[in-house]
Amino acid sequence: MNFTDMAYLESKEIRGERINYYRRKVNTGLSVYISEPIRNILDYFVSIKPTENNYIFPILDSEIHKSPQQQKDRIKKVSERIQFELKGNSKTIGNSR
């Protein structure tokens, strides 16, 4: 799943053992099977999310990121931060061998 689509993922898109969501970039509906590791991640974030926010993951806040540009900027900022963290961790892992 694309990072932007994850940012917009809502609980209502989880139906049984599948995530049925709308792929924003290509305007296509998709359905993804929820494996056990994915279920664990979803369960964790659903359990900690504030009730006033519609999104599952703590990327967007519907009270703060109201305009499309604010949402786009926030998604870019968080995505860049995650990429930075992953690069830092991969260097650490590579050096420990």
Brief account:
With 97 residues, the chain is α+β, with helices and mostly antiparallel strands. It has helices at residues 3-7, 36-48, 68-95; strands at 14-15, 18-23, 28-33.
Structural summary, described in words:
There is one protein chain. With 97 residues, the protein is an alpha+beta fold. It contains three helices and three strands. It has helices spanning 3-7, 36-48, 68-95, and strands at residues 14-15, 18-23, 28-33. It has a three-stranded antiparallel β-sheet with strand order 1-2-3, with no helix packed on it. The longest helix is centred in the last third of the chain and has 28 residues, at 68-95. 7% of the residues are buried.
Q: For the terminal residues, how far apart are their CA atoms?
A: 31 Å
> Strand order of the main beta sheet, please?
1-2-3
Radius of gyration: 15 Å
In the predicted model, the low-confidence regions spanning at least 5 consecutive residues are none
The count of DSSP E runs of length 2 or more, i.e. the number of strands, is 3
Q: Give the overall shape.
A: globular
Helix content: 40-55%
What kind of oligomer do you see?
single chain
Number of helices: 3
- Biggest sheet descriptor: 3 strands, antiparallel
User: What would the average pLDDT be, to the nearest integer?
Assistant: 87
- Helix and strand content put the structural class at alpha+beta
What is the string of helix and strand elements?
HEEEHH
Describe this protein with a few key phrases.
97 residues, alpha+beta, three-stranded antiparallel beta sheet, 3 helices, 14% strand
